[in-house]
Amino acid sequence: MELDQGLREAVREAGKAAASGVKFTREMEERIRMEVGKKKQKNRNRVVMAGSLAACLALTVLGVREGFLPSMSPQKNGTSAAAAHQTDKTAEQAVSPEQALAPLQKAVPELGGVTLRKGETLDGVALVTLLQKDRAIGQVAYDTRTGRIESYLLDASNDGEKTTIAPAQAEKVAQAFLQTALGEEAKVYAHQATEVYADEDWRNGTWMNVSYQRLENGKPVPYDVLTVQVDKKERVAFFGRLNEQEQKLFAKFAASVPELNPFPVVYNKQLTRDGWALVLGKVNDEGQTAMVSEIGNGQDIDLYRIQRDRNEVAQKPNEAEALKQAKQLLGRLLGADSANYRHVESNSAEKFMRYHNGLPVMEDVLDIELGSSGRLLMFSKPTRAYSPSSFPDAAEAVAKSAAENELAANMKLVYVQHMSEGKALKQPTLEYRAAVSFFQQGRPVFLDWYIDAHSGKINYGTGNNGFAYDQLQREQPQADAFETHEQPVIVRTKEEAKALLQTEFGVNVEGMSYRESVDDHQKNKSFNWTDSKDRWHEVTIDAKTSQVVGLRVPRTNTQVTVKREQAEQAAVFFLAKYADPGVKEVQLAQVMEPGAANPVSSGNWVFRYVMSKDGIPVLDKGPDAAYEVSVDPSTGKVNSFRNWRETHKLTELPSSAEVVSKQKAAESFLRVMPLRLVYLLKDQENDWLDRPRLAYIPWSEEELASSFITIDAKSGEAVIEP
Alpha-carbon torsion 464, 466, 467, 473, what sign? Predict the structure, then answer.
């Protein structure tokens, strides 16, 4: 089943190492679209937000049900290649999945006859997928050195129902499970509580949660807790516990956060690519629940966040008191290392950035949010740490003037139409930007571009869903021109859509399963035919004007024989017919190479374009592509088209004949956002670097940190928008 390229790119970014295991079904696609439609916001970060939601849905909520479990990288979080190699060498001595899961399979009748598929190992913990035929029904994480089960999750959602079994029966099922799964070890755990637990956000159901506490000499052992969850069918749907490393980690954390309850309840525990993700209940005297993310297997806590009602607003101390308390907590958490952090922002949380030799370390930022009583509501830190010796000497950087010259050489003109839903919000503008693929904010939250302080050259990242205009048009922009057309292609009925598929692609959809749909915003309508292999043949139109804004037919076969030049020519030729009336040229904004189809790629040649005028890119509000064309890599013929514009009208653009020079535009830019020498821990694609890197980045005064800034190409003055 194919998925819109924007969602594919979001999933790809969210789970590069894991996404190859995703299995998309029509139900998954429709659920993603529904959720994106609900939460998509019409602002400058709308595609990123929607994409993140799609990725989250694909990689977490639907993971077990659709046959996907996240893979882990053994070298993540600073684990050395040597350590990874050692893990491989000792793999033969490790406990096998069959050995580790044998007691569990005895304790859970539903696991009889399942197939075990072992994934990668993270810090001595292996993730195993439980398969019935080709469908994943659950996951188990176990310690490969001891065989101890750390967590077990069965795909038992209860279908969202609130019904549960009686507490006494749940306790009976849980106790029987522990006796079989843990054997003699079960005797040292005493029943703590039985309660109803509703997990609507993650597993969409309700369970009886039976919790236990380890006793030694009649006294409870801090943080040595485990939980058994029983569903309405009396099945054990979840088992999780805190291991020895985690017990030590939480005891250390509690020394700085004294309100942390030494006897919490484990509501959820799952292994991710970076470490454990937990939901702990009763973490304080108020009985609150916390989301906790660990680095590795109990190495460190990189996120601790109290869960609150969606409509609840945290009451925080006054600004001065909040900062004072946050600094005190930072000192308790980090000790002497806290002196290397400087306060950079107060908002919902207090933000502290690491400085090394007087230079900011961009991605090393700590967040602390406190309640009105000083109680910790949220703490987060980076998942990667670097030794001081790995930081290069600032003296290695090129002169700041050289970096400024590089910036001036790369200033770019761009038209912005400022149009939405057919109405002009304001007059179109001609702007200078340092990067077309991104909005420029005063103090960057994410690295859109930077100037490498060793080479003195600018490096561009990839923008929304793979938007890479700056990378592709690094030299003189190349525009593809074609003869414009006065009228769009119109389809009003099912029969006209069927005829268009026949005429354009030679596809006869007679006898296929048919349905019509309208998107959540009532903007686009789709005529869709599905063949016996569940492949889509689709025509999408603007619901108001009936203009064709999307076409799709499946690939012919799996072969890849067509070269890029031939595919690109076919894409531009096709655009001449289906681009909006009045568009005379386009510029390339993204290229995806062909290959085998998978959940995050159709496997086609994919080209995304922005509109263009006189070699200058034309955007509709933000850095997003206007058109996408896919070309079958086995035939060289177009098999998919999408018009992504919110409105299909054009407006008259100002002349580019009289504009200030790049140099003057750069000078205005630098007055508002001077370049600053910093250390980077991530590259322009947001991937962790092997060692810190020196770079020059723009950095405004604090009051402009969240403002959007461009340079008016006519006046040369900075334009600042909140």
Answer: positive
φ/ψ (deg, to 5) at 159: 55, 30
Say whether pTM exceeds 0.90: no
Query: Do residues 86 and 121 lie in contact, with contact meaning Cβ atoms separated by under 8 Å?
Result: no
Copy the structure tokens of residue 565: 């030049």
Contact status, residue 177 vs residue 220, Cβ threshold 8 Å: no
Q: What one-character-per-residue DSSP string does 311-350 give? A: T-------HHHHHHHHHHHHHHHHGGGGGGEEEEEESSSE
- The Cα–Cα gap between 74 and 277 comes to 17
565, with CB counted inside 10 A (0-12, 13-18, 19+), is exposed
Q: Which two tokens stand for residue 562?
A: 């067509």
Give tens-digit pLDDT for 351-396: 999 999 999 999 999 999 998 788 899 999 998 889 999 999 999 9
295/301 Cα distance (integer angstroms):
6
Asked if 575 and 629 touch (Cβ cutoff 8 Å), the reply is yes
Helices (H), 447-536: 469-472, 494-505
Task: Give pLDDT tens digits for 110-157.
Answer: 888 899 999 889 999 999 999 988 788 899 999 999 999 999 998 865
Residue 205 CB-density burial (10 A; 0-12 exposed, 13-18 middle, 19+ buried): buried
Angle at 718 (CA atoms; ends 712, 722), nearest 5 degrees? 110
Closest CA to 13 of 61, 74, 58: 58
**Torsional sign, CA 305, 306, 312, 313:** negative
As a whole number of angstroms, the distance between CA 351 and CA 441 comes to 18
